[in-house]
UniProtKB/TrEMBL annotation:
Signal sequence coordinates: 1-28
Gene3D superfamilies: PLAT/LH2 domain
InterPro entries: Embryo-specific_ATS3 (IPR010417), PLAT/LH2_dom_sf (IPR036392)
Keywords: Signal
Record protein name field: Embryo-specific protein ATS3B
Pfam family, one: ATS3
Ligase keyword on record: no
SUPFAM superfamilies with a match to the protein in the record: Lipase/lipooxygenase domain (PLAT/LH2 domain)
Top-level taxonomic group: Eukaryota
PANTHER family the record matches: EMBRYO-SPECIFIC PROTEIN 3, (ATS3), PLAT DOMAIN-CONTAINING PROTEIN
Keyword Signal part of the UniProt annotation: yes
Amino acid sequence: VKKTPMEVFTLSSILLLLFLSITNPILALSDQSLISSVLHDKEETCPYTVIVTTSCFSPDWSRDQITISLGDADGNQVVAPRLEEPLSGRGGFKKCSSDTFQVKGQCLKTICSVYIYRSGPDGWIPETVEIYEEGSKSVKFDFNKNVPEN
């Protein structure tokens, strides 16, 4: 069977491209991880100091697992799962006391919402949550109500 010059050219081009892609990949796996890390570095991370004050109506100590979500008007959120390690180093969520937590996440515009999620048997009751963001005024949310278990 005689092949036309176009068929020979196409077949040889495909073979050449296949050979080059095997011997010299255009994008190696290490390059992909480099590109991925560059993309993630462009996303800023901001520190937030969160002060949670436990209500005097709360149990003496709480083993409840507490998660908070900070939000801005654009719908962006920073979630701090399972607040367990306050900066004081002494457990958390004691009746009539405050615990300070350091939270990092995407940089939000003005924080305008806080959601509290509680899971556990103790019925922990927050009084206030105050958030400090570097270079901004603090924002304080009053609760003093039981948070239903999720």
